[in-house]
Amino acid sequence: MSYYQVGGFRAHSEAWSRNYDDASVIANIGAAPGPGHLRPDGAQGALELVFGVLPNGATNILLTKPQMIELTRNHGYRQPYHSPHTASSYLSLSPLSFDFPSRTALERKLEKYKQKSNKGKKAPADMIDNSPANKAYYYDGSDTTATPIGRARAFFEHNRVLYRTLMNSIDPASLSLPEYLPTKLSELRVISFAYNNWRVDARPRHERLGSPRLLDIGWAETEIKNFVSNKSCIDQVHCTIKENQTFKNASEPWTFLHGVTETMRLEDAGKKLKAILTRVASPKSQNEEFKDTKRHPVLLLVHDAEMAMAVLRHLGIDVLNSSGIDFFADNTRISDLLEFPAVSERYYDRKREYSPRRGPSVKKEEAVDYGYPDDRRDYRYASSASVKREDDRWRGGNRAGKDSRSATASSSSSYRERSTTFEAPPSDSGARGTQKVYVIDVRALHSTMMNAVGPDAGSIGRIAKDLDVAYDAPSERNGTVVTYRCCAGNEARLLLEFWVAMASGADIDTQNAERSVTLEYDPDDLPPAGPAPAHAPSFDPFDESVDPNDFEPAVAPGESGSGGGPHVVRAEDSDGWDEF
Predict the structure, then answer these.
(1) Inside any domain, residue 208
(2) pLDDT value at position 124?
């Protein structure tokens, strides 16, 4: 699919405006009739454009080629003189919708892409996108080099695409995704996993990662459509760890609201969770028998992926080389699940310095810049041969897909009215195959969207407040306000709500603007300042005469401690469910 930029730096729409005044162009796009490519749901339906995230994190508002043709024919515009962009120019492409009437909202959005004067920069190469929306991402003057923030923003948008695919409310072809994607992802299992560690653990983070003092775990499995419509889950579990019952967090007990809490040994809890992750299929209800024999991919929602992986290891689930399970925990792998072409095309054309269709190639040594860690598993998958084989497996059973795609592009009917059932190719993992688990860090999604800062950044309370999700954990006991309660079973369900709230919303920048609030902190609620003790009191965890909860945590130099007030989460050093 080809894409044409509307508004902003060196936009294709400049060919349709006079003296760089694109007001009439915006008005014509906003007033597009329907049904058509611009407004597929009819005359009063939403205006559907495309939101593209460049490798450095900057964004463009785009028209697909069919939309551009529709616009030029309706208003007598000439075809843009610049070559169109391709999907491989972007790390992500996602839907951008404007409810009817659309003109005012579109004007507000494009206003942020207006350029300021490049006075003094006569050479075209010296000119950069200095619009309010994008200037912060051009600190290196490049939009072709992937940056951490670029990958993080694209990861957020991929989650929006994934959600809409699961809800069957997306036109895959408009985003350069395969037509069979809704059928493929209809087999996706969604599981959220939560945990609580002992908060009085004063060890450095790397030691806590190596051996977490785990108090409880919880998980919930659901089908997204059912969860959105009636908040139902297929399975909800809460387990407390028997070996660590002597460890207590200074918090109000929070009763598991969705079942009965079990107390299990660490090893048994790990086996039970592993059985859930590797289960061959999901029943439609708790009473339905399992009849499917295929291992469907799993979307695993967690809070703080690094610590979550450490907890899984502690439970006996080998996240690096587990027999039967292959975890994908870095934020680029979701594009593999979506089969977004910007990933695979880079590897097909390694030897080509430039391709008008696919853009610059990426050499093997540059792959890390696009978010692929230099490990055996990623390069095994990313090699052009293996990616090609996987693509062939899917496309082999759907040769008519190419013809249907071109027919779809020329049709003006609503994509929601088209048939979304395609002949499903053989699954790439059978009953004895490897279980693929794609890990989504919900805390990272929130942090990327909100640019979260402050003493409560990343906490459950902060995320719930920003996303307007009901969270009734604070309570009052004997006149003292308890600022958090812990139950991993309830928190697993919260993770589902958090993900749905973000993934179902508007693009990342619009959500940031709509959800941003100024948080005020009471100084009495913050930990006291002062020098930290050099060492924490030591104790023998096997000495039954010692209560480990009598020990206060030591605070490493330069870090905040809990003091006498509520525990305050550190964004870079959080175990998960701390409150402000």
Answers:
(1) no
(2) 60
Contact yes or no for 236/492 (Cβ under 8 A): yes
Q: Domains in the chain: how many in total? A: 1
Helix (H, G, I), strand (E, B) or coil at 272: helix
Q: Tell which wins on pLDDT, 449 or 518.
A: 449
Residue 251 lies in a domain: no
Tokens, residue 190 = 């969604």
Integer Cα distance of 455 and 569 in angstroms: 6
The beta-strand segments (E) located in 288-342 are 298-302, 325-328
| CB-based contact 434:277 (threshold 8 Å) | no
Q: Could you tell me if residue 453 is inside a domain?
A: no
For the chain, the C-alpha Rg in angstroms (whole number) is: 25
Helix (H, G, I), strand (E, B) or coil at 318: coil
Distance CA 9, CA 124 (A): 12
Token readout for 379 is 């390069």
End-to-end CA distance of the chain: 47
What digits encode the pLDDT tens for the residues 509-548?
999 999 885 444 343 343 333 333 333 334 444 444 444 4
pLDDT of 23 strictly over 50: yes
pLDDT in tens, 381-424: 333 333 333 333 333 334 333 333 333 333 334 444 443 344 44
Q: Tell me 317's DSSP state.
A: -
Say whether 572 sits in a helix, a strand or coil: coil
Give φ, ψ of 293 to 5 degrees: -115, 5
AA identity, residue 255: T
List the domain range (segments joined by +) for residue 70.
1-186+325-402+415-433
Domain-located, residue 284: no
- Lowest mean per-residue pLDDT among 168-177, 301-310, 359-368, 547-556: 359-368
Give dist(CA 191, CA 234) in Å, integer. 10
CA distance 130 to 149: 18
Would you say the pTM of this structure is higher than 0.90? no
Q: Is residue 186 within 8 Å of residue 179, measured between CB atoms?
A: no
Are 295 and 429 a contacting pair, CB within 8 Å?
yes
Dist CA 94 CA 114 (whole Å) = 21
Cα dihedral across residues 385, 391, 396, 401: positive or negative: negative
pLDDT at residue 298 is higher than 50 = yes
The rounded distance, in Å, linking the Cα atoms of 324 and 426 is 19
Single-letter residue type at 562: S
In this structure, the dihedral spanned by the alpha carbons of residues 305, 309, 315 and 316, taken in order and rounded to 10 degrees, is 160
Q: Largest Cα–Cα distance in the chain? A: 86
Cross-strand pairs, 196: 216
Residue 356 CA to residue 354 CA, distance in Å, equals 7
**Structural contact between residues 277 and 312, judged by C-beta atoms closer than 8 angstroms:** no
Residue corresponding to tokens 């430039």:
354
pLDDT over threshold 70, residue 166 = yes
Report the sign of the C-alpha dihedral through residues 532, 538, 539, 541, in that order. Answer: positive
